[in-house]
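anyone else get weird line breaks when pasting these?? whatever heres mine. first is seq + tokens for prot A
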Amino acid sequence: MKTCFRLLTGLMALVLLAACVTTTESPYKEKKDEARALELSSQLARSYISRGEWESAKRHLRYAIDTDPKNVEAHEGLALVFQNTGELELAEEHYRKALRYGADNTRVRNNYAAFLFGMERYSEAANEFELVTEDVLYEGRMNAFVNLARCYEQLDRTEEAAKTFRRAFLMDKQSTAALFGLARTHYQLGNLPKAQAFYDEYLKHAKTQSAASLLLGIKLADSFGDKNTHASYALALKNLYPKSREYLEYRAYIEQRQP
């Protein structure tokens, strides 16, 4: 009888010990599972965004924000979704939240600056791009300088634009965006030899000419009395971009030059 009692007591002790161990480990396991579920939702959301499946992306991003209201990537993801679906007020709301919770996240700030540029809010965009370019370790810094220069152009700050395009050029001397920006701003500033030099360098690296580059090429050709290049570029502009803003500008430009 005593043996049975000892055996029963021992079994109860083991059960109690097992229960204690399970209770102690459970919170850690739950946190680990929650973190894993959050990471999985973020991965799925990024995948859906890349494929343009906005509703599916929103479902996973909402889960991420419900789980962690200060999740920077989730707010940025929702901003991108709403930006692409035309819900611009909601996009800006989530960009601002992403920056509130992750003020040092340069990628988010760069995306917000590009959003502001697309909204033609050039002064605000310039302020954000200026902050982006201050991050010397940001891998997209050269492009940020290009976009900052484009903001300055829109704000009629042409000299600053030229200096900023040069910053981008010094970081990548084969950048067609920086080279064309330098050619365009130096033309606007009346420095024609520099404009032509940067334009010629641009042509060495550009695979195809845009409507804007053809129009600038025409204007430079006229500045140097190069009628053949004018005729060649004008024909290309008419054939390749007949409905472009640049072609309409070219026609107005020709009318102004006629006696």
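and prot B, same format (seq, then tokens)
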Amino acid sequence: MKHQISFGWLLLLSVTFFTTVSSAPGRLSPVHPKIKPASVSEDFETFFYTQTLDHFNYKPESYRTFQQRYIINSKHWGGAEENAPIFAYFGEEGPLDEDLPIIGFLNDNAPRLTLRINISKQHRFYGKSVPFGTLDEVINDENTRGYFSSAQAIADYAEVLVYLKEKLSAQNSPVIVIGGSYGGMLASWFRLKYPHIAIGALASSAPILYFDNITPQDGYYSVVTNDFREASESCYETIRNSWSVIDELASRPNGISFLSQRFKTCSPLGTSSELKDYLDTMYAVAAQYNHPPTYPVTVVCGGIDGAPEGTDILGRIFAGVVAYGGERSCYEMKKSNSASQTNLGWSWQTCSELVIPIGRGSNDTMFPSAPFSLNDFANSCMSKYGVPPRPHWVTTYYGGHDIKLVLQRFASNIIFSNGLRDPYSSGGVLEKISDSVLPIYTVNGSHCLDILTSSQSDPQWLVMQRQVEIEIIRGWFAKYYADLHTLQI
């Protein structure tokens, strides 16, 4: 086995990474909306597990089952006799087919992680793991949607892993769970709830502290603002000043029609809010997925700052739209009436337990004031589903308050990886908890960047971030196999 990382080297790396200082908010998926995933590799085999609908009750209806999809890549499997490791990727709020082609962390690092098997599991109620009809039907069924929760999801993962280890005769194979964004939250929570199943977790861009007012409401938009300001002070000022210009024009007779013409909308704007929501989303997505080598924030600001001299403020903002979205005959700024599976599912999850209070004040970001109101949010959820959200449940069930004081006493083997250009890093774990609960972050990183497929154009800081994560996981394996050997003597 590979030797465990020396404490001295880890400490040296900690100086570099620990102290170096979705879609719009709501969705946490690691999949950039502009990325078109390739087809799933031929190395993957798809299976379905007969999953328990309700792991926590014993009523007759709780014993209903559904087919849960999981995918295995055994190309590098060393076999049960070698106690080869198992890596389990946790799906999040979307189909696995969107994630697997771009989540390259495991396959890229196969030679350095010893022979292992990869298992990717679909989150219940998403993709092909929807019980009893379509997701739309499930969400509208008040007797079924209550089983759509994170606790049920990680219990699913536990049951599948136990089943597969038995099926593979791999009871002594160590399991590492990996996830990005919401999947990263699930991975860290799984390690806390099921330490007897997984020896460690890599939680990429997991904002587990963006609940119950642990993180300031404006954390997300503060990072978006900083990203643009660091890219260009003039770009930041243009965006900051544009909102009042839009409002002033919208208040004039035929002002909305004028805005529609200036921004070449595919259909006439109904209100100025449609335009502002579009721009809000564009800036947030550009910051959240500010991946190399393109760096979308730089692209947007390049358009804004590169507009011809004398261009008015709306013209400069539109130039940023064109730079980001490309030259088009028109730009669709109205929200689609068709609800994707992700939007349907995530709407329910955030209206039940995953209440992430993202808001902003009047002068703390480059955006107009939009404070989060729990009362308004609760009324909206009541209108949609007839149930109020539970904003304190995540911290009650998984923890979050006083996280350093609590986790250093009972948690181990969790990597919380982040890129500080990711707005969701504001709700991530950025402080060292203990020698084995570690934050690994980079100044220029963005959402889930470390677990995406590597490229020859990757900057050195990203290569190093992944290398650090690999070496820490190697250390976990070394300790596990040493303990296993001791027990077998």
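btw re prot B: The CA atoms of residues 422 and 446 lie 4 Å apart. The first strand starts at residue 44 and ends at 52.
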